[in-house]
Amino acid sequence: MTPSDPALPPRLSSLTFHGPLSEARAARLLGRLAASGPADVLDIGCGWGELLLRLLDAVPGAEGVGIDVNGEDLARGRALAEERGLAGRVSFVEESALGTDRGPVDAILCLGASQALCDPDLPHDPAAALRELRRLVRPGGRVVLGEGFWERAPTATELAGMWPGARADDHFSLGALVDLTIEAGFRPAWIETASAEEWEEFESGYRYDTEVWLAAHPGHPLAAETRARVDRQRSGWLNGYRGVLGIAYLTLVAVAGD
Q1: Residue 249: left (phi > 0), alpha (psi -120 to 50), or beta?
Q2: What is the pLDDT of residues 96-149, one digit of tens each?
Q3: Judging by DSSP bridges, how do beta strands 90-94 and 63-68 pair with one another?
Q4: The pTM is what?
Q5: Helix, strand, or coil here: 150?
Q6: Nearest-5° Cα angle at 32, 256 to 60
Q7: Which residues contact 221 (CB under 8 A, 6 or more apart)?
Q8: Are 209 and 9 in contact, with CB atoms under 8 Å apart?
């Protein structure tokens, strides 16, 4: 789709956060992070940087960098920063996070984006991503990680209904995921998981603008491919990972060196 075409649906304009995250949970996450008084913050896979901007607003003087590969989302983030008077304290940069040298920093946000820290030619490896996060944060610094985990082992039928090529080893259990954070050099200071209500708000909000557009423009030249894409996404949720895939929000503290 061409973002500049007014006949096409806006990109994710019904979402505040790009993930199953409520306002109440976001406030709690950011409150704990702000209390640590970070001077610099790195947001990996930032999208439009809503959490980053809220954190900078809560910590006067703190500076932040958001990195992502989606230029449209980054432009939205810059516009939001201007609106909130934060443009002088934040940069939104279009670049890969793989091997980034933008650390060490006091705080890192990495929500639903740990794959950006892994070799794209290899299977997603949360352990490798956690090692990278530990490299990028100072001892005693904080990381807020949003990471997928299996609520329970998926059945073969559920896996077949998810994303193409979904496998039982695509994710860990919550316990195994938390163990990986400790092995990487963190202490899991706070462990929480997205609720069913947060998932439903996100999944419906993710497709809302497009569904409304499809209802109003059934004969548009791009309607067929758009409809097929959205129908696949919805089916993957309802017939695949709903109630099976969870999202953990882990507030991690980097262990001090010897």
Answers
A1: beta
A2: 999 999 999 999 999 999 999 999 999 899 999 999 999 999 999 999 999 999
A3: parallel
A4: 0.94
A5: strand
A6: 95
A7: none
A8: yes
